């Protein structure tokens, strides 16, 4: 075993005479050094900035491992969920895409949902019966992390802008049927008369001016331009430490927040260390940011301008400003550029909900019996309105569900499943347009969310109440 020095330790090279005191003392010290166990790595918040491996070597190694890494994640999804195509009857997203329905989380063998609901958290933990689909979901490659885009986004961006969001080391694994419709419509608070302002198109540098000139003021138009302009990011940049075949311009805000909504692109939060504790984050929608007061799943940033600036300076680079400097961080000017971007984002509206009145409650003349019963559960036995208050169904606060009560800490493909801590209350307006659910996308359908909260909060809902609750959320 060699020391970290450039050449192996050698007493002969030190020109010490055999038999001398210094030679004997050196021999003892050398033997002790070589016999000593390797010291554990010191915890370090920083990523290395000096490349010790060539780009071609990294690319070759990761491409060889790619199929095995992706298979492992697919196996995890198959173990946790029913991934078959089961669209909800009579329910679609705003542009007509089918909404996947039914409980997809698989139960431990010999256990039913009512069985679990009748047990305490301690009993479930002791018997290891907490459904695996309710546990934190890791990144496709937790050790590597980074932005990962669905194929629909990659293909359309390449077609329209000749810009490639493909990673050589990873592909997006979850089937498109569980993702939001693409491209999603855009609704503006200032021009509800226009309906979908995107006209069914993916908004990018090639068409933003055509779509928005005459609709937005000059500041807002400049904000859109910045939101669709690619800037360097951890995996997409021009350095050798990237995950694209060719040097990349980077990513744009609207590559994840497609058309001001979401495509469910995946990343890891930049706030937490070490790597195994970092939460997977599935891109939240930007719709309705004008009514929100907290931004980031846990960061609790207090304005959309704070969030916008933080994303560019830190979140794009795993929260590491040293890496950001190396890869080409784009420093936005707070008084103009950040303001312009924030002003446009504040115009993004929720989709129309024709069954809701001006208070965000059901119009009784338009609602079905199931929706009416579901509303009663939502505001009563289900306790949903404790956090999700109308008209936008958020309380702009943070809550800790303490889900770790139900399971012992465990490693899940590199993700240490333990306490998640407090997470912000996401709005439920337009929720059927925004699968998957919870901050890390661990729940595939709204039916899954009902079972999750029924168990975690001890609600004791019956089957009819669960179905009615889902019907009400479809109407939001």
Keywords:
single chain; 476 residues; mainly alpha; Cytochrome Bc1 Complex, Chain D, domain 2; two-stranded antiparallel ribbon; globular
Structure notes:
The protein has helices at residues 21-35, 55-80, 113-117, 121-126, 151-161, 208-212, 218-227, 253-256, 304-313, 321-327, 334-345, 369-379, 446-456, 463-474; strands spanning 87-92, 98-100, 266-268, 280-282, 398-399, 410-412, 415-417, 423-424. It has three domains: 1-39, no CATH class; 69-81 and 140-345, no CATH class; 87-136 and 354-474, Cytochrome Bc1 Complex, Chain D, domain 2 (Orthogonal Bundle). The strands form four sheets. It has a two-stranded antiparallel ribbon. The longest helix has 26 residues, at 55-80. It has 14 helices and eight strands. Strand 1 (87-92) and strand 2 form a beta hairpin. With 476 residues, the chain is mainly α.
């Amino acid at each position: 075993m060699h020391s970290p020095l450039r050449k192996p330790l050698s007493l002969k090279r030190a020109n010490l005479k055999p038999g001398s005191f210094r030679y004997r003392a050196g021999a003892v010290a050398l033997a002790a050094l070589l016999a000593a166990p390797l010291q554990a790595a010191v915890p370090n918040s920083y990523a290395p900035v000096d490349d010790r491996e060539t780009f071609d070597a990294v690319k070759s190694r990761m491409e060889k491992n790619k199929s095995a890494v992706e298979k492992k994640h697919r196996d995890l999804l198959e173990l946790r969920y029913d991934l078959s195509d089961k669209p909800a009857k009579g329910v679609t997203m705003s542009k007509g895409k089918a909404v996947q329905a039914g409980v997809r989380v698989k139960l431990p063998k010999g256990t039913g949902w009512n069985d679990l609901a009748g047990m305490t958290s301690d009993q479930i933990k002791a018997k290891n019966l907490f459904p695996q689909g309710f546990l934190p979901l890791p990144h496709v490659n937790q050790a590597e992390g980074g932005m990962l885009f669905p194929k629909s986004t990659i293909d359309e961006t390449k077609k329209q802008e000749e810009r490639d969001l493909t990673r050589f080391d990873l592909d997006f694994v979850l089937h498109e049927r569980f993702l939001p419709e693409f491209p999603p419509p855009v609704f503006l608070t200032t021009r509800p008369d226009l309906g979908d302002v995107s006209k069914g198109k993916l908004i990018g540098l090639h068409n933003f001016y055509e779509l928005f000139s005459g609709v937005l003021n000059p500041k807002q138009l400049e904000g859109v331009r910045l939101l669709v302009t690619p800037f360097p990011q951890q995996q997409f940049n021009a350095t050798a430490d990237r995950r694209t075949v060719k040097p990349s311009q980077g990513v744009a805000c609207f590559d994840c927040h497609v058309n001001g909504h979401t495509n469910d692109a995946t990343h890891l939060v930049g706030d937490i260390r070490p790597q195994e504790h970092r939460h997977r984050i599935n891109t939240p929608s930007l719709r309705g940011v004008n009514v929100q007061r907290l931004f980031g799943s846990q960061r609790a940033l207090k304005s959309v301008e704070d969030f916008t600036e933080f994303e560019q300076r830190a979140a794009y680079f795993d929260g590491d400003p040293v890496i950001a400097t190396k890869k080409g961080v784009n420093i936005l000017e707070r008084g103009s550029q950040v303001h312009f971007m924030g002003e446009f984002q504040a115009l993004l509206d929720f989709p129309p909900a024709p069954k809701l009145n001006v208070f965000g409650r059901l119009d009784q003349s338009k609602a079905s019996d199931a929706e009416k019963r579901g509303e009663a559960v939502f505001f009563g036995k289900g306790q949903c309105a404790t956090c999700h208050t109308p008209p936008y169904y958020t309380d702009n606060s943070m809550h800790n569900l303490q889900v770790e009560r139900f399971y012992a800490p465990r490693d899940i493909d590199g993700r240490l499943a333990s306490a998640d801590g407090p997470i912000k209350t996401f709005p439920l307006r337009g929720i059927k347009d925004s699968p998957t659910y919870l901050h890390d996308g661990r729940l595939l359908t709204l039916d899954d969310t009902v079972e999750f909260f029924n168990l975690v909060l001890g609600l004791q809902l019956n089957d009819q109440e669960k179905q009615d609750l889902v019907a009400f959320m479809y109407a939001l």
